[in-house]
Amino acid sequence: MKPLATVLAVLLAVPASALQVEKSRVARLASQGGGYSEVEVVAGEALVRFDAALTRAQREAALHARGAEFVAELPPTGWTHVTLPGSMSVDTGLIQLRSIPGILEAAANHAYRTSKTPNDPSFAQQYHLGKVNAPAAWEYEVGDSSEVTVAVIDAGIEGTHADLTPKFVAQNWFCDPGANKNSGADDVACALEATAGNVPTAACNHGTRVSGVAAAATSNGSGVAGVSWRAKIMSLRVFRTAPADCTADCSGGACATDDTAIINALNKVRELNNKPGFGRMVANISLGSEGVLCDTALQAAINAAVASSTGVVVVASAGNAGSVVSSPANCANVIPVGAPDSNANIASFSNRGAELAANGVVAPGVSLPPPA
To answer: What distances in angstroms separate CA 47 from CA 62, 67, 87, 361, one per listed residue?
Structure first.
């Protein structure tokens, strides 16, 4: 599968009251292959075991002298709960605690989580979710605290797909490329999909796959798991379905869109951003024009979207030619996304360059399972 910028659509917020955690580097046992691994620990805290001969006052004084503080004894274990000074990392704090006379052992206060594993049949094959730490993020939240819509500016979405139908917003659009409008309404930049119930339609399968990666219905016993369980999806189709311009796999000489359709789609996203029923909008453009600099008209539309109330987030695929970053990913105010494989090596087809290095990210883009 092509690199899909929609993996950035997970806008998961950690509540202010949540337990604050960080990563700690620990040595693995020889039976585990040796080396080191990272584990989650509670930030700013530790557990220590004092010499039993020390009084409570002596323990508190020893800690206070190093900027640490006594919290509570943990009977009958013989261990004590302590806090570390300031913003000191747990790894550094453990080194300091172990150097205090009277402390026999010091250990991190490890973090534990429920195992929130979705029951989607293809979840086990979705290696990319682990690579972007999605399961760990789900333990914090799955997108319930914020209303977010992924606006998929693409070839349309299969509106009857079981893994996607629960996720659509009330408005899905067709923004016609070119001067000869198939909609018959030349004065309308984008028109609501002309289907009963405004169900989105697809010119080919690309937009459906993009949407599945971003926000497929999750833990519903069907298909794949989406990165964001609660984000909604809005289809902004910028390819024509009639006449049949695209084959099912989105090839064919006429299977293309243009600046005007993408600009009109971005304007529609800007118009609906933060409106009731849509919330914060993330515009995903997994499209590209290879070897083309960002043109001024498209850049103006991107700037306007990003500058709108609280700002639309715009992400785009860096491209699939193994060359320089394509447009619109090379535009300012866009987050370009490259593609590594399952071994974290940049895929041979993934574009790369200055824009990606300066403002981009990479997210798995090889052999991602589509919605079933």
So the answer is: 14, 15, 17, 37
Dist CA 121 CA 222 (whole Å): 6
Distance CA 228, CA 11 (A): 8
Q: C-alpha distances in angstroms, 6 versus 127, 205, 341, 342?
A: 16, 15, 16, 17
Task: Enter the DSSP assignment of 309.
Answer: T
pLDDT tens for residues 129-179? 888 788 878 877 888 888 999 999 999 999 999 999 999 999 999 999 987
Note whether 371 and 212 are within 8 A (CB): yes
- pTM assigned to the model: 0.72
355 touches 336 (CB < 8 A):
yes
Q: What are phi and psi of 183, to 5 degrees?
A: -70, -15
Contact in structure between 162 and 223 (CB atoms under 8 Å) = yes
Residue 24 φ/ψ, nearest 5 degrees: -120, 140
